[in-house]
Amino acid sequence: MLINGSRFRLATLTVAVLTVAACAKKDNSAVDTTAASSTTMADTSAMAGAPAASGTWSDANIVALLDEANAADSSAGAVAATKGTAAAVRDFGKRMIRDHHQLRAEGAALAKKLNITPTAPSDDPLPSAAQSEMNTLNTTAKGKDFDKAYIDAEVDAHKQVLELATKAASQTQNAELKNLIQKAAPVIQGHLDKAESIQKTLQ
């Protein structure tokens, strides 16, 4: 939703779509392992360098991409919450866990209500991008380099998530799914604004 500005992008983009309901009041520091269905509903946040999926997305594709992105951003946040050096970075990581866990739950609930089985598109770029991001986070030494790499990736990822949300909202014909995506925009923007403010302190 972290390094090279290319890991969280699409995942984060996708994640953002469901992020609207994400800002939960509780602070859940555990990695989100909840699966919306047999197909992981990925949230936001965030594999920046992931190539964007091309073509038209069905509602099942959109739900799957969102869940994958949310799961990826939540997992990356869990690493930052414990490995980050700056308090602001650790707190941001915790916020990503909390918000994206909530988004996944909302996406799963809507999918169940609409009887949609999440199905990733054939050109789904998120799994490999998420793995690449986690590899980078896990191999980057704790300290200023890690903090900067994580936050830089989050900024890039959330910019792309906003673009992803726009595409998803334009492709779905389902009013409830479209509404969920549109309501998520302010949440995603809030994540981006916070990441950018932290980024300035890490220069």
Report on the structure:
There is one protein chain. The protein is mainly alpha-helical. The chain is 65% helix and 3% strand. The protein has a two-stranded antiparallel sheet with strand order 1-3. The longest helix is centred in the middle third of the chain and has 28 residues, at 87-114. Mean pLDDT is 77; it is low at 1-52.
Helix run count? 6
Structural class: mainly alpha
| Element-by-element helix/strand order | EHEEHHHHH
Query: Ends: how far apart?
Result: 21 Å
Quantity of strands, as a count: 3
Helix content: 55-70%
Question: What fraction of the residues are assigned to beta strands by DSSP?
Answer: under 5%
For the biggest β-sheet, the strand order reads 1-3
Largest sheet descriptor: 2 strands, antiparallel
Question: Which overall shape is indicated by the principal axes computed on the Cα atoms?
Answer: elongated
Instruction: Return Rg in Å.
Output: 15 Å
Low-confidence stretches: 1-52
Query: How confident overall, as mean pLDDT?
Result: 77
